């Protein structure tokens, strides 16, 4: 479903990603872990074209873009249309109701009809436990509710891959569980997902594979139980030790 080959990314003179290679199969859940500043968010943002690598190749569900120093513009929508992104800070439209937030993109971008979109949105809101809140505005919701609405909104575009950037790190501890439960449900349904997270218990539960990153490099990867319980590399051991 996803293939990254030799991805390099810098900001000004700072190299943030070096020689990133990895693949994600259809239906697989991959968690990216690692210290702050190791490049996890930048890698995730490269997958939907919010950041443009200087070189390397990204392929998502058959659409492929090769990046090069010489080129400035890319048909980035070819990648973006396969992905749904959920951010730390929710990013809902503040002046639209929950329901309107959900139907906005497919209405405008895909030019779909309103009535079936409302039905689809209500089904998704029911799934994330927000149907009764469909006519509220974001500032009338808790952080956990806002994040569940943001997940439902991303699902409206029926993405091949869902990308999560620390989806619970802006939430009060008591609201984290309700968001993680929704993501777990998606995992059980076979949704392909790449998740940047600091929640190691959650990663252990939900990830088919864990990638540990440090200084812009994938240090090691493997099944969650290997990486999180018995990591081989010292950097991974040190990182996990700090969390105990
Ligand atoms: P992580 O998600 O692992 O915390 P990030 O991908 O956010 O790491 O950041 C990796 C490095 O890139 C950090 O040193 C950060 O300061 C830098 N960085 C990220 N975004 C930008 C940007 N837009 N401009 C300049 N530097 C950036």
From TrEMBL:
Matching entries from PANTHER family are given as:
AMINO ACID IMPORT ATP-BINDING PROTEIN, L-CYSTINE IMPORT ATP-BINDING PROTEIN TCYN
Please give the Gene Ontology molecular function terms for this protein: ABC-type amino acid transporter activity; ATP binding; ATP hydrolysis activity
Please give the name of this protein: Amino acid ABC transporter ATP-binding protein (PAAT family)
Family annotation (Pfam families): ABC_tran
Q: How does it sit in the membrane?
A: Peripheral membrane protein
Q: Which UniProt keywords apply?
A: ATP-binding, Cell membrane, Membrane, Nucleotide-binding, Transport
Q: Which InterPro entries match?
A: AAA+_ATPase, ABC_ATPase_HisP-typ, ABC_transporter-like_ATP-bd, ABC_transporter-like_CS, MetN_ABC_transporter-like, P-loop_NTPase
Q: Name one GO cellular component term.
A: plasma membrane
Family annotation (PROSITE patterns): ABC_TRANSPORTER_1, ABC_TRANSPORTER_2
Q: Where in the cell is it found?
A: Cell membrane
Matching SUPFAM superfamilies, A to Z?
A: P-loop containing nucleoside triphosphate hydrolases (SSF52540)
Q: Where is the ABC transporter domain?
A: 2-240
